[in-house]
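agent> Task received from the user: take the single chain below, predict its 3D structure, and emit structure tokens. No templates, no multimer pairing.
agent> Plan: (1) validate residues, (2) run structure prediction, (3) serialize to tokens, (4) report one or two observations.
agent> Step 1 OK, no nonstandard residues flagged.
tool_call: predict_structure(input=
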Amino acid sequence: MRKSFIIGLCSLFLIPYSLYAWSYDSETATEMQAAQLRFGAEFNKKWRNGLRLGVSEDLRFDLYNSAVGPHFRKSYTTLDFGYKPIDYLKLDVGYTLRIIGADSTWSATKKADPNEWIRHRLFFSATGSYTFRYAKIFLRERVQLDMRTDSVNLLEKNKYNVLLRSKIGTEFIIPGKPVKPYLWLELINTLNAPEYQQKDGRQFITDIHTQAGVKWRLTRRSSLDFFYRFSYGYDRDINITKKKGNIELTEEKCFMHSIGIYYNLDW
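)
tool_result: status=success, residues=267
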């Protein structure tokens, strides 16, 4: 009687897990190493009532890529509006036009179709911050909607991906010096990954970014940002064959080292 009770109790814990654990016909793993160079510029117009209008451009080039070799990777053009109702809180809403560069599946057909390499992004974020004597800490939560207009199998991937980006960091203040060292960490989590893409039936962390850098003030309104970033990316690529109905899973990991320089101008 006691033995049957223990077996039944263990089953209660195992059944939910088994319901979520998909059985794939084949499972493979890939790993990519890359070194990247980034250039960017951001222009902000600020008003005394706490409103801000920003325009930015971000260009990314892979100097080394173990999968496809050196190539242009991405371009991000962003327009965003910000509002700072109080000293400790900042709200932002914006749109980003993303241009995707070549990858291992690039072809003349994909190059001719803009839907294959153009992506759209909407986002809303709230940032809380507090300044101590020689440092400022901040926490940002951002909800992001990534949209694509090409044709996809909705069982394999979404046309509209919803992600949560959580970022925490600190900026150090050196009295009398025009430089501000900083450090931050960001986690990106899926919110609506399709069933077969989910990890053990759950949403998962798809990216971890860490960045260390220094902001160098050139004038009262302009500055340069020099940084090093390490990124870990994890994705679950699903392929469902039409004829046999087989479900193939490929776990993709990417280790990215980036060096960048951004220019910032406020007016």
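agent> Step 4: summary for the user.
The first helix runs from residue 2 to 20.
agent> Done.
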